[in-house]
Amino acid sequence: MKIITITLRVSIVFMLLCGVLYNLAVTGVSQAVMPFQANGSLIKNEQGELVGSKLIGQAFTDPGYFHGRISSIEYNGAGSGSPNYAPSNPDMLSRVKESMEQWKAENPQVPVEEVPMDLLANSGSGLDPHISPESARVQIPRIEKETGIAASELSHMIERHTEGREFGVLGEPRVNVLELNLELQQARAQS
């Protein structure tokens, strides 16, 4: 009976320590040190309305906005992930051909050969909020035509939203599509 009492006491102590106190400590530290990230890196527009997260991509289909990467899960975070197709997989080839045809229809002024691969294929998570700076630049002719905003101003927007490599060496330069489109939306409202 004594061993059962000791076991129960130790279990309760560790449940409180690991299940409650540890979580409160981690939450408190993260809220104090980096509250923006701890709360989901949420982005609001000029009116203060929540429009999304800096960490999760969205589907932009309006031709007057920059488009992000293709998502095989329709940007549904509940089902994060994507098929791990090889480049020779028939389903992958079919999806890329569909993307190429869609590109030709929406962007007739830019040949498909100039389109970076990240606009034609999905990311590993299916939720990637970034595209390469090159992927943003090839969309300028369409957006200039749709909005009347000069190509030079669109290029400056892309430059302002281009993030470098992490710690100067990890990853590739990238552009957050949601943040870029928010600035584009402001410019459209002013013109």
TrEMBL record:
What keywords are annotated for this sequence in UniProt?
ATP-binding, Cell membrane, Ion transport, Membrane, Nucleotide-binding, Potassium, Potassium transport, Transmembrane, Transmembrane helix, Transport
Give the record's membrane topology: Single-pass membrane protein
CC terms in the record's Gene Ontology section: plasma membrane
Which GO terms fall under molecular function for this chain's record? ATP binding; P-type potassium transmembrane transporter activity
Q: Which InterPro entries match?
A: KdpC (IPR003820)
Main location per UniProt? membrane
Question: Any transmembrane segments, and where?
Answer: none
Q: Where in the cell is it found?
A: Cell membrane
What's one Pfam family here? KdpC
Q: How does it assemble?
A: The system is composed of three essential subunits: KdpA, KdpB and KdpC.
| Family of this protein | Belongs to the KdpC family.
Q: What does this protein do?
A: Part of the high-affinity ATP-driven potassium transport (or Kdp) system, which catalyzes the hydrolysis of ATP coupled with the electrogenic transport of potassium into the cytoplasm. This subunit acts as a catalytic chaperone that increases the ATP-binding affinity of the ATP-hydrolyzing subunit KdpB by the formation of a transient KdpB/KdpC/ATP ternary complex.
- Name the chain's protein: Potassium-transporting ATPase KdpC subunit
Q: Which organism is it from?
A: Paenibacillus aquistagni
